[in-house]
Backbone:
């Protein structure tokens, strides 16, 4: 038996006996709830014998009860012999090396007008008044809706990637650095790349998959995935380009994803035992970023070319 952070069950609750687990249960169950650790049973909360119970009230006024229970580590998923590289972006949230495009739902942007209205209303209320408290709860509720919609979406994206592939390669994006660009900050925060990566890390570990995180200085967009030719320049607005060396036509994002996959597989071959990820340093760069939960292992990725059948 092992206790895993991921086995926590968070339920919204009116009181301890009236649980409504929003994360773990597809249907709303009153007075009892199911969780991932005991998927086949509807259990009374007390029957779970939780190691830790945390009761918290969020700013939106809802009560949350989190149980940590001891559970067996789930069996690893069956091997699929499939590998995938994922290019993360703003226009499309994720583009895979198989050519699959996951759109960016822009949860915050879609609700930005609503949020702004609630915030204005709150600002007009007198400090400390009952009306201000009510308005503040409305702002918090609007934020919660954005947060929940984003988390739900990212969970669906990450679990699909983990189910379908043995090895997943992603880029290590400098999110905090990019958010400093105020023109992009809101759009980038809205993507949830950091959360997607967090989910991929723990889901890969839970289901026996391998996640490789590539160094952010790796020129995945500017390299031809067919022949390895490196472009001197590729403007961010160029969506499609033709390789001057081998004349291959490339979609910018799919080409990047293919390069990420090829580089990641090279790392996976170099460090076959490392289940969580590896650190890849681009030659000539002195900056080394640590990857996910691993011993300091460094690999210098050249410009590997993805060959058919891999
Ligand atoms: Zn080429």
Residues:
């Amino acid at each position: 038996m092992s206790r895993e952070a991921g086995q926590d069950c968070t339920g919204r609750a009116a009181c301890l006996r009236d649980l409504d687990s929003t994360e773990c249960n597809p249907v709303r169950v009153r007075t009892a709830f199911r969780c991932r650790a005991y998927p086949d049973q509807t259990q009374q909360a007390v029957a779970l014998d939780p190691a830790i119970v945390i009761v918290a009230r969020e700013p939106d006024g809802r009560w949350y009860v989190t149980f940590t229970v001891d559970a067996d580590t789930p069996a690893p998923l069956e091997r699929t012999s499939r590998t995938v590289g994922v290019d993360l972006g703003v226009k499309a949230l994720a583009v895979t090396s198989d050519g699959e495009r996951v759109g960016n739902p822009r949860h915050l942007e879609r609700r930005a007008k609503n949020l702004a209205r609630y915030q204005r209303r709150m600002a007009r209320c007198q400090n400390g008044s009952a009306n201000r408290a009510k308005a503040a709860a409305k702002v918090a509720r609007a934020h919660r809706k954005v947060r929940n919609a984003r988390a739900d979406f990212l969970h669906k994206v990450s679990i699909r990637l983990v189910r379908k592939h043995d090895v997943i390669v992603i880029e290590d994006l400098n999110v905090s650095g990019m958010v400093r660009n105020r023109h992009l900050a809101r759009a980038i925060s809205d993507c949830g790349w950091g959360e997607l990566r967090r989910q991929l890390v723990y889901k890969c570990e839970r289901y026996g998959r391998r996640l490789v995180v590539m160094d952010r200085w790796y020129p995945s967009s500017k390299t031809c995935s067919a022949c390895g030719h490196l472009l001197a320049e590729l403007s961010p607005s160029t969506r499609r380009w033709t390789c001057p060396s081998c004349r291959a036509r490339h979609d910018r994002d799919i080409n990047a994803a293919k390069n990420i996959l090829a580089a990641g597989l090279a790392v996976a071959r170099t460090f076959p035992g490392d289940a969580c990820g590896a650190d890849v340093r681009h030659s000539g760069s002195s900056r080394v970023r640590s990857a996910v939960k691993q011993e300091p292992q460094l690999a210098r990725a050249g410009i590997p070319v993805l060959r058919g059948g891999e």
Notes: Residues 2-70 form one domain. The first strand starts at residue 9 and ends at 15. The chain has six helices and 15 strands.
